Amino acid sequence: MSTEERNESNATNNSHYATQIAFDAELDSTVISLFYQDRANPARNIEVSVAPDLGSNLFRFRVGEHDIIYCEPALLKRKDFTGNFVLWPFPNRMRDKRYTYQGQSYSLEGLKRPQGNDVLIHGLVFDRPWQHEQPLADQDSASVTTCIDFGPESPFYEGYPFESRLSLTYTLTKNSVTVTYNVQNKGAKQMPFGFALHPYFALLSGKENTLVRIPTNYVMEADDELLPTGRLLKLEGIMYAMFDLRAPVPVGHLKLDHVYTGMRKNESALIEYRQQAMKLHLITSGDFTHMVIYTPTEAPFFCLENQTCSTDAVNLHQQGLMEEAHLLELSPGESSTGFIRYVLEFEQ
After folding, report:
1. Interatomic CA distance for residues 68 and 110, integer angstroms
2. Taking CA 181 as the corner, what is the angle to CA 228 and CA 116, rounded to the nearest 5 degrees?
3. Predicted pLDDT of residue 52
4. 208 near 196, Cβ under 8 Å?
5. Is residue 3 predicted with pLDDT exceeding 50?
6. DSSP codes, 317-344
7. What percentage of the chain has pLDDT greater than the value 90?
8. I need a labelling partner for 85 at 20 to 30 A (CA). Which of 68, 166, 167, 262 fits?
9. Is 283 helix (H, G, I), strand (E, B) or coil?
10. How far apart are CA 172 and CA 18, in angstroms?
């Protein structure tokens, strides 16, 4: 990391953990980093970096010399899709960029995204500057909290007129990174929302030796715009075998951009990097009921996105498909919290 203007760090005496706030010249932005040092085995050192001004993007997750998160600095600098960005309050796509909630219709049709996909929303905060607190390190972990307020001064407030705050706490331990979210309804009416992260995972072991598992019972049927119809396809037998990821499958065998649901209890999604003898478990709180997988054929990455709801959840909810959508709702003054935890397992 190149540093200019500001470079602050703190560490507890004899601790394995440290933090740093620095200005990254390449990104032209402040970056907050959390560090874990394994003095016996540097290959298990971990560095995590977040760019608050660039959407609170968790763009670096480095284990030893390996970057688990794929990030293109030029794309991150212009707040495009890369790294591991935040999807809130509506993850992924929305039909016609319109929705109805409690009898009121709303539109986000003025929203434009870099790829030009007409129904792509990817939330309203990944390209906004966030606030951050002072990072902390102690004997057991390192952490930092970022937050963003959504109100009348926010872009597209007319399309989502719900005053609220989203806070994220990133916590690093010797074998995991946890992102804990907290949503507060600061307005006077009930608000709908969904939360997700959109990580671009590097193909560290290549397409044949990087494997993925999603322990779910259903894939959601999608239309030509990759919007869920609401129909759930059960992953049994040969009819939907191409979607069955209940056992690890090489990423190179997949051509998917689909939503999965019906998560099996006490099981987690998994990425297996065979050449590095390393596994990454994606463990979440119970409110994460859906997962999106995206496997572009020519890219050096794939996406595995834990979501608290379906894609286009607010419109499925309006159709009465409550379970399929799993839209979260908060009354005035209420808050909601949950977490996504990336847990490393080393095989040697």
Report:
1. 34
2. 40
3. 98
4. no
5. no
6. HHTT-HHHH--EEE-TT-EEEEEEEEEE
7. 89
8. 262
9. strand
10. 10
Which residue reads 């099981």 in tokens? 267
CA dihedral 195, 196, 197, 203 (to 10 degrees): 180
Q: Is the pTM of this model over 0.85?
A: yes
From the list 191, 184, 130, the residue with the least C-alpha distance to 157 is 191
Which amino acid is located at 296 in the chain?
Answer: P
3-state helix, strand, coil in the chain (%, to 5): 10, 45, 45
Express each pLDDT in 82-107 by its tens digit.
999 999 999 999 999 999 999 999 99
Residue 4's pLDDT band (cuts 50, 70, 90) = very low
- Residue 11 pLDDT > 60, yes or no? no
CA distance 75 to 115: 12
Q: Which residues of 12-50 are buried (b: 16+ CB within 10 A; e: fewer)?
A: eeebbbbbbbbbbeebebbbbbbbbbeeeeeebbbbbbb
Q: Which of 11, 37, 8 is nearest to 173 (CA)?
A: 37
Q: How many Cα atoms within 13 Å fall on the side-chain side of residue 330?
A: 22
- Among 11, 83, 12, smallest CA distance to 49 is for 83
Token code pair at residue 333:
């003054």
Residue 120 has pLDDT above 90, yes or no: no
How far apart, in Å, do the first and last CA atoms of the chain sit? 30
Cis peptide before 129 (omega within 30 of 0): no
pLDDT tens, residue by residue, 152-167 = 999 999 999 999 999 9
Outline where 108-257 has alpha helix (H).
206-209
DSSP characters over 28-45? TEEEEEEEE--TT-GGG-
Rounded Cα gap, residues 43 and 88, in angstroms? 34
Structure tokens at 94: 């929305």
Quick: pLDDT tens for 320-331.
999 999 999 999
The DSSP secondary-structure symbol of 69 reads: B
Alpha carbon distance 20, 174 (integer Å): 17
Per the listing, tokens 């970096």 go with: 49
